[in-house]
From TrEMBL:
In the C-terminal section; belongs to the glycosyl hydrolase 73 family. This is Peptidoglycan hydrolase FlgJ. InterPro entries: Flagellar_prot_FlgJ_N (IPR019301), FlgJ (IPR013377), Glycosyl_Hydrolase_73 (IPR051056), Lysozyme-like_dom_sf (IPR023346), MGlyc_endo_b_GlcNAc-like_dom (IPR002901). It comes from Roseateles asaccharophilus. It is found in: Periplasm.
Amino acid sequence: MNSLRNTLSPPAGSDTRSIEALRAAAARDPKSSIKETARQFEALFMQEVMKSMRASTLSSGLLDNSATQLGTEMLDTQFAGKMTGLPGGLSEAIARQLQRQMGISDKSASEAAKPLQPLPALARKNVAPHVQSFIQRHDEAARAAQAQTGIPASFMIAQAAHESGWGRREITARDGTPSFNIFGIKATPNWTGKVAEVTTTEYVDGKPQKVVAKFRAYGSYEEAFKDYARLIGSNERYRDVVAKAQAGAGAETFAQGLQKAGYATDPEYASKLARVINTTVRVQRALA
């Protein structure tokens, strides 16, 4: 049994040969090596999680022996591998952080120039054309904001979609001029740019009320994303939200953090936004 145990390969990145291979790969292609390093770290982390879960589980002892222990370890390794490298997972968050620290772009020039593809027939099911169009239209601006804030582009596209009704309820000035304000950012006293004054819904003590409010107006959607990135990245009350998003927090955590920080008055804001984020991620995966 010991000989069989010795034939098992150690976790990726835990032996000298794997480390040397990563070093060689880093010299040739830093971007790819970052992603592989992040994936291997996540694999090691997931194996430790599985090990901790096993250790905290009561065992009957009736069937415990070296063979069952080996089988359990092999099964946990397989489970850890299956949970590693998934979109939106820990490895992506680690890779993004390393790329920012090393000044490496998350998207190559060839990828940036590649035209967006229509959704496959299966993925188009239950996805309205205006939803797909909105996600594609704002992808580049959202990725630029992601590089600035560390918040996933999908989260920001989804928030813009929720605030603007997927672009079908955008804020406009009284003369019909577009404001390009798809994040619903209000014009505070320190705002010196153009404004659009409209009637909106605010919740007071949990009850909706119609009020007239001034919102910021921009010259383009790109300006809106840049201003959102500045607001969310520099405002102290959003610091915890940004930090958790950079660390790989999920849609629910991000949405709840925004609501707690006071981004919106709707008591159901977090749950609504989380659903839109999940839809956005699903469509983006189909487009990838």
